[in-house]
Specification:
- The chain has 361 residues and is mostly helical.
- It is built from 13 helices and two strands, in the order αααααααααααααββ.
- A two-stranded antiparallel sheet has the order 1-2.
- Strand 1 and strand 2 form a beta hairpin.
- Helix 8 packs antiparallel against helix 9 and helix 10 packs antiparallel against helix 13.
- The protein is globular and about 50 Å long.
């Protein structure tokens, strides 16, 4: 019986990964309660768009916070507040720039975000800042004046999220309600040739191409293509392919649920309840199973954006198409990384038949 290849093993492990013992309902409920407050405030004051942006900021601040026991340093979370605000306002400015300017500017911004996170355990901070950057680029309503307003909204939402993330630290009893979770270590670079500088360059270039493609195809929510590239593209081909597959599976499942909801339900109260449920599931299953997490995230984002950046049920279908496109781009970039930076192949020596490393060219 043949041994599965590393690629097949990675896909099987990532898609079948299921750890019910890491279900963290306490974090899910706490996060959902904090995430929905900016939206409720925005709706109450007649500014649903501001509420949506504040909620996105709060959501992304919690993404920086490590799941499980409180291990994320408060200083890192405070830095995330600033990084998120700068990234979102910069993305708003980029969104109104001409295509020939916007594409390279976005690439430069993503590169800076990932470069900041490449050292000192700040990888998640850099990734989340890049996520907010591309979301701002893809959201409608961008302008120079809007950038300042959105900056304030993101700061307010991120600070609110920071307070929510600090709850387990201020109330030790809360920690007992969450299971001990050790987040998986990020995959190592596939070879010495791919330095801490090389990977951000490849990701930034792929995200820029995703924006270019989205503009050329006239995609309404092209940031989902860019988001999929950011999330799925890893330093090794096996994990890039497996995360792309899991992301697509989760998106298809979540988009199907969101399509049914947006088609049949128009009550704001019911939609808010469903947003709370999806946010709870999302953060309760962050390390349980990635497909479940991606499904809940898809439902939450589609329902949230439908409240102000309306697209109707078609928004769910667009999400699937954009995710498949982004996953394809991520896998293509992963193949390129593997081809360029895979460890040297070994070949038998002519006389003794002993394997010897191929010298680098």
């Amino acid at each position: 019986m043949s041994t599965p290849t590393p690629l097949v093993r990675a896909i099987a492990e990532d898609t079948r990964h299921f750890r019910p013992q890491e279900l963290d309902l306490a974090s899910g409920v706490r996060t959902a309660a904090f995430v929905l407050v900016p939206l409720l405030v925005g709706l109450a004051v007649g500014s649903p768009e501001g509420g949506v942006i504040g909620t996105l900021a709060t959501l992304n601040l919690f993404m920086v916070d490590a799941p499980g026991a409180p291990t994320t340093r408060p200083r890192l979370l405070a830095a995330a507040v600033l990084a998120n605000a700068v990234a979102f306002s910069a993305g708003t400015v980029v969104s109104v720039a001409p295509e020939l300017v916007a594409v390279p500017l976005l690439g430069a911004g993503v590169f800076v975000c990932l470069l900041v996170g490449a050292r000192g355990g700040r990888a998640q901070l850099g990734l989340i800042a890049a996520v907010l950057l591309v979301i701002a680029v893809g959201l409608p309503g961008g302008s120079a004046s809007a950038a300042g307003i959105r900056l304030g909204l993101v700061v307010a939402g991120s600070v609110w999220g920071l307070l929510g993330a600090m709850v387990p630290r201020w109330f030790p009893r809360w920690r007992a309600w969450s299971p001990a979770i050790v987040p998986p270590s990020p995959p190592r670079y596939p070879g010495a040739g791919l330095s801490w500088l090389g990977f951000p360059v490849v990701v930034a270039a792929t995200v820029s191409f995703a924006l270019f493609l989205g503009l050329r195809l006239g995609l309404v929510r092209d940031f989902w293509v860019m988001l999929t590239v950011l999330v799925a593209l890893r330093p090794d081909l096996a994990h890039t392919f497996s995360f792309a597959v899991a992301r697509i599976l989760g998106t298809v499942l979540g988009a199907s649920i969101a399509y049914a909801i947006t088609t049949e339900i128009s009550s704001l109260a019911v939609l808010l309840v469903l947003l709370a449920v999806s946010a709870t599931v999302m953060f309760a299953t962050r390390t349980v199973n990635y497909v479940i997490f991606a499904s809940a995230l898809t439902v939450f984002v589609i329902l949230l954006l439908n409240l102000t950046f309306s697209g109707g049920p078609s928004l769910a279908l667009l999400r699937v198409f954009d995710t498949v496109l982004g996953g394809t781009l991520a896998v293509a970039a992963g193949v390129l990384l593997w081809w360029l930076y895979a460890p040297p192949r070994r070949r038998p020596e002519a006389e003794g038949g002993l394997p010897t490393p191929v010298p680098p060219s």
